[in-house]
Amino acid sequence: MNIPGYNDGKGFPNQFASNEEKDEQKYGLRVALAIEHEWFSRDHSTNFFGEARSEYLRRRAYARGEQSIEKYKNELSVNGDLSYLNLDWTPVPIISKFVDIVANGISNRLFDVKAEAIDAKSASEKAEFMTVLKKDMLVLDMFSEVEAKTGVNPFSMPKDSVPRNEEEINLFMNLEYKQGIEVAEETAIKSLLELNDFYEIKKRTDEDSVVLGVSAIRHDFDIHDGVRIEYVDPLNLVYSPTDDPCFEDCYYFGEVKSVHVSELKKINPYLSPEEIEQIAKTAGRHDGYLGLQNNATSASGMDKQNVTVLFFCYKTDRDVVYKVKKTSNGGEKSLKKGSDFNPPKSEQARFTRAYRKIDVWYEGVYVLGTNTILKWDLMKNMVRPGSAFQNTLSPYIVHAPKMTRGSIDSLVKRMIPFADQIQLIHLKIQQVVQKMIPDGVFIDVDGLNSVDLGNGSSYNPSEALSMYFQTGSVVGRSYTEDGDFNNARVPIQELTSSGSNAKLSSLIAMYNYQLNMIRAVTGINEARDGSSPDSYALVGLQKLAALNSNTATRHILESGINVSKRLCEALSYRISDILEFAEFSDDFASMIGKSNLSVIEKIKSLHLHDFGIFLDLEPDEEEKQLLEQNIQQSLAAGLIGLEDAIDIRQVKNPKLANSLLKMRKQRKVEQDKIEKSESVQMQTQSNIQSAQAASQARSQEEQLKAQMDSQMLQLKAQIESQQRLQNAEIEKELMALKYQYEMQLKQMDVASFSNRELEKEDRKDKRTELQATQQSKMIEQRKKDLPAIDFAGKDQDERFNEMMRNMGGDLSM
Questions:
Q1: Which structural domain, as residue segments, surrounds residue 795?
Q2: Which helix (H) or strand (E) is 795 found in, with range?
Q3: Does any domain span residue 258?
Q4: Tell me: the pLDDT tens digits for 206-263?
Q5: Max Cα distance, the chain (Å)
């Protein structure tokens, strides 16, 4: 959009303007004109952009060894006359070596992206896992005893991995614990870095930090290409005034580019051919006036088809206004409105105005030297931290580790004065070498007179030189033919031109002095570049010198880390936005997780989490050597095993690696104590078993003897018992027989008693009968008065005996 006459203001527009006013092209043009005035104005016969660009170009020329030689010609010429000098004016690329040492050393320091989930859900899961670790730690002894007795593993992880103290818990969480969502985030960031060839971009930014003292990267989002990472040349960069090395307080950034006129139509499709032609003419004159044209383009005649365009972004705030309406059921409903929304303030109004301010970035494209702004829009896909949504990050990431009051220092800037002196000394050395003449000889002709060689030939200067150069000998006379002393008795004397040698030595000494001055101001010593190490210096001292050199240039390494870390944080926020709002979130998740299908589902939920991004920098050679030295000492002392050394070498963080080494050493010491105790116990048990075996043998012998005695006693007792049993049986039988006899006797006695009683009763009965009979006879005798009756007659005795015989008795006696 061309706004004629709209170049009267040189300041930035009103920050408190409404959203609608900020959206207008006129507002964007005012911003572009303010940036142009700060960087490209020639009110003081120069412009800040041109000065910065020239300085950066000069530093790059020195870094490549392609600096201008005019200053050297001016110093060596006499009134501008170089006709008597035939020198090689090619610059000595001495600075290139130091740039390569530092830049390549930084590029070799790879890093690993680490993402730590810091949202409430992830923090809760982490706390729960730490609780499990602490429980396993507290019940380690009890569970070990359970495992030993039952053979069942009650631990939630391998027993060897269970931490022993709080320090080991923290180490385990740093090395072993990784949530699936963190793995997905790391995979996504690494994939985006690889897709954009970030490591090639980083090489260029690291070299810029060494050469220019500042490095820059731009990140944005394209609906077709996704997240893009682009290298930004500091030569073309403009920014708001700042003293912050990270440029985080800058409110505008811009990038100057030379584009073909055909590209203008792509930027603004509404431009007419006449407007494009007018822009090309005006911009071309302006570029020539400010010296912005590329030399190669200008020489080829293509500059008429190119225009210099400023791509810029501007940070301001924006009101987000809502209409809050009260519903009939007592609730509230909000609707987004424009910034000019102003509801009535009456008490009967059912809606009110609510708003908040958020930071936003506008992006624009401006043709330098014209009033034409090709684009001015609110930037899409702005990067906003999840924890501070009102803030937004800049699409440009810039860092200058050595910046003071806007002046940017660099290693190359420090080396330039001494590189100029080295170049002059190199040219002077060429002059001295050109003027040096070889050593010659002086021949005194008078010393050759009257010298006879004995071969008939005359001794002339030619013959003398031939003899001298072939044999190193010369013939002369001490006295003349007249007998006087010959002052020319040594006719040939060697001439040496020592003046040039002294000059050459002096120039070489000055050359080395300037080279040492470069090492002094940069901190890159001989131990680091390996040019001329001291043969008498100990290896430890050389390593210490290399370490000090790395410390001197550490700010450049930290600058690269800072840029990489801020970029990874921005990529993390962009990934969340894409997965939450973009239409192709599923395709993006599949593209990121194509090498690891297990993280695709996790990637889709990344926008629900907040992450802290960290970079684990690979240790440098000194740190690796110190760690390896500790590992080797521990291996030699038997404090760790080979598998422990392998695990420790895989940890990139030196601090964590040493902590792991310390833990493994403690574990090994404890394990050795346990094994030693077990060995002692086994030895003691073995001794006890041996003693027990011997004692058992003796006991068995005694037991066998006792057993035999016992068996004898048992046999004897058995015999006695059997004998007693037999005796008892005999006695029993005897007793039974005796009892039988006694019973028979008893029966006999009873029978005898019974017979006796029966007999008594019978006798009594018979007597009674007899008495009755007798009584009867007596009565009969009385009645009849018969003679006396003899009751003692033979007939009665016979009857009594017969009765006794019937009873079994023998009453014959």
A1: 655-806
A2: helix 794-806
A3: no
A4: 999 999 999 999 998 877 777 889 999 999 999 999 999 999 989 999 999 888 888 8
A5: 251
